[in-house]
């Protein structure tokens, strides 16, 4: 059954089954996904997943409860499961206390976005990977297919978002155990783009065969590839742009909002809803819109969920309950790809970071380790792979005083999470050239 028709039919049934004084929020999630797992550049496992589920929230007299259910193969079975869920929630609600921060959106908004692009033929994809990386120890995971998301409420709101995408996430291993990691993701497959990324990986893999360079603790010039910058921004996303965290004085960028600290004027961060793979709504019932989170180094709008809006008297802007970016985009700069090593001169080329955490949250100080494809560079030339090192530095330096330039080209990264279902979070980021990065051990 067509996902949109399935969701519309269930929504209409639920409207008719509602009793006086009841309201509902209904979320829909479906996927038709293809998965291919590679080892040594050969297919080791392949399969397909088709599934759909609902999230039903029933509201009455300030009380609310939610239940999730999987959908079956027939409309009759789906209606029966939804009816059972409605009955369970009706029995549960009288036993719950009223929620003082419940905020139900009574606007009858409508939104419909369909971005179904042709996806690559899996046989041709496997053939290309085998042809261009068959002699390499490539371990990877390919996921592709359309994702469907829907929202409806008793107030008349209705949102629909359907988009196809692909995501090929892989690692290349050297015989000595060193490795590098890469990703190619998007909506329109470009065989030449994959070929370029595999060629770059092959070139970096050759450098991994050289003796490892171990540096002394200190400050070094550094280039952060988009994947490394993504790790930093993912950590910052947990509370860094949250209205709740700001109100509770738990935001790592609290000093930025109070005017005590600054970020670089080169820094422009946006929650980009327009054209994104994430839907323009969440299950809380408020439409999303493009938000400037950081504007030329200065604070913009925070992400405000419905609950934070009720609790702190703020206008909700469609943020999820956890108030983290879902489709983050950073503006690029003037640095071109072929200038990176020359502009870096002598310092660190950092392909990936991991194990990031806050070492001093109020001061926006973070720590983590270098990971895959990190190199020591001298006079604009890669000399050796870098031994794993720990850094500890402030975001007000990394994204502030020490941010020299951003690359013109930006890299799209899609979420690799597949727990329960494929996720559709994304980031579009440049690389970043830093004057200093502090290594501690």
TrEMBL record:
Signal peptide span: none
A Pfam family this chain is assigned to: PmbA_TldD_3rd
Superkingdom assignment: Bacteria
InterPro entries from the UniProt entry: Metalloprtase-TldD/E_C (IPR045569), TldD/PmbA_sf (IPR036059)
Domain Metalloprotease TldD/E C-terminal: start-end pairs: 217-434
Name of the molecule in the record: TldD/PmbA family protein
Source species: Pseudomonas zhanjiangensis
């Amino acid at each position: 059954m067509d996902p949109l028709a399935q969701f519309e039919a269930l929504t209409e049934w639920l409207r008719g089954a509602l009793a006086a004084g009841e309201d509902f929020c209904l979320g829909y999630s479906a996927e038709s996904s293809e998965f291919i797992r590679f080892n040594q550049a050969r297919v080791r496992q392949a399969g397909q997943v088709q599934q759909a589920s609902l999230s039903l929230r029933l509201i009455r007299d300030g009380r609310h409860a939610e239940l999730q259910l999987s959908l079956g193969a027939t409309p009759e079975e789906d209606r029966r499961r939804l009816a059972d869920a409605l009955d369970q929630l009706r029995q549960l609600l009288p036993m719950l206390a009223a929620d003082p921060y419940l905020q139900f959106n009574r606007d009858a908004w409508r939104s419909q976005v369909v971005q179904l692009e042709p996806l690559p033929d899996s046989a041709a994809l496997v053939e290309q990977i085998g042809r261009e990386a068959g002699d390499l120890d490539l371990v990877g995971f390919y996921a592709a297919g359309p994702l469907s998301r829907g929202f409806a409420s008793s107030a008349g709101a209705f949102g629909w978002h359907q988009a196809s995408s692909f995501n090929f996430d892989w690692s290349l291993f050297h015989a000595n155990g060193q490795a590098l990691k890469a990703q190619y993701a998007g909506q329109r497959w470009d065989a030449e783009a994959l070929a370029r990324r595999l060629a770059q990986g092959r070139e970096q893999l050759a450098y991994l065969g050289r003796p490892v360079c171990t540096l002394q603790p200190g400050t070094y010039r550094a280039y952060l590839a988009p994947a490394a910058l993504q790790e930093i921004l993912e950590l910052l996303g947990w509370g860094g742009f949250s209205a709740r965290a700001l109100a509770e004085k738990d935001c790592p960028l609290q000093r930025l909002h109070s005017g005590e600290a600054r970020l670089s004027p080169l820094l422009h961060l946006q929650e980009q809803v327009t054209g994104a793979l994430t839907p323009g709504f969440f299950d809380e019932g408020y439409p999303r819109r493009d938000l400037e989170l950081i504007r030329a180094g200065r604070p913009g709008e925070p992400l405000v969920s419905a609950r934070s809006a009720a609790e702190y008297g703020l206008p909700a802007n469609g943020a999820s309950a956890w108030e983290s970016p879902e489709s983050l985009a950073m503006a690029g700069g003037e640095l071109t790809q072929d200038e990176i090593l020359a502009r870096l001169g002598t310092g660190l080329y950092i392909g990936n970071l991991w194990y990031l955490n806050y070492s001093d949250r109020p001061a926006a100080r973070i720590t983590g380790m270098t990971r895959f494809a990190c190199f020591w560079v001298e006079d604009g030339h890669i000399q050796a792979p870098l031994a794993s090192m720990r850094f500890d530095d402030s975001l007000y330096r990394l994204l502030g005083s020490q941010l020299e330039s951003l690359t013109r080209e930006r890299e799209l990264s899609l979420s690799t999470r597949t727990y329960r279902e494929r996720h559709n979070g994304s980031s579009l980021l440049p690389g970043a050239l830093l004057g200093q990065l502090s290594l501690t051990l």
